[in-house]
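HUMAN: Mind making up another protein with tokenized structure?

ASSISTANT:
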Amino acid sequence: MKMIPIDDMVKKLSLTVLSPTTKTELDIPVSDLNRPGMQFFGFYDFFAYERPQVIGKVEMSYLEALEPEQRRERLQKYFSYNVPCVIVCRGMTPPEDFLEIAKEHDVPVFQSHITTTKLSFNTITYLNNMLAPRITRHGVLVNVYGEGVLITGESGVGKSEAALELIKRGHQLVADDVVDICRVSERRLVGESPEMVRYFMEIRGIGIIDIKAMYGVGAVVLKKSIDLVMHLEKWDNTKVYDRLGLTEETISILGVKLPHLLTPVRPGRNLAIIIEVAARNLSLKRMGYSAAHELDKRLNNMIAGV
């Protein structure tokens, strides 16, 4: 199970630590949140204690209205559950006994200065990204006309050279050679480069080059959704390659199906232009237009005498 680093969570969500903990990581299994108003009232059926606990104005007002002894009794029961953390919104500061009991149970308490709704949205987004399934693939990821194109193939087939030509033509590099992929939703993958090799590219015969330093910040992007997978392979005369595009092939990565193109490579083929055309063609298909199906329709109409 993936653990959430406390320092990273505090930094990314702009939180203030009101009550520290001896832990360095939080065991948070899901990206959902819980608002403990019903628990403060005494109802613990279906208590989602494994989620981060978010306290807004309603919950805080109720706690402050309780008599000190009654509040302490209810907080003792609340913190007896193994809650990962508590986040107090709107810059509010909880009562002293709240922080004292949280410290006794080693539960960190954070403060956020934004509204409960905004904090909830930011936290769920952050946890979705941190808890997303991940995989590493060999390939090159480029942003071409707004489409994330993952170029795969055996070493030496020309992936980096094709990406370099695309960068020269105004497109953006996301990752070269190693692509970290995470599934941020049921139908969307996002790829990025490992920080160690970010913006670097290996060109055989030259060595390592820095794309950001060489072509400027406009030639790189930190991360991009993956919309198309193009697999490059050396031209095989015994194979019959698709020349019409009527059949749409897909590939599954982390359970997400993506359009997949098998592209043969041989001397003289301009791979950069082919990748550009593939990206534009994908955009057209998303808008409901397919050149292959339009040609097929015209041929069928001509045969039928329409």
Summary: The mean pLDDT is 93. Residues 4-131 form a domain with the Udp-n-acetylmuramoylalanyl-d-glutamate--2,6- Diaminopimelate Ligase; Chain: A, domain 1 fold (CATH 3.40.1390.20). The longest strand covers residues 172-185.
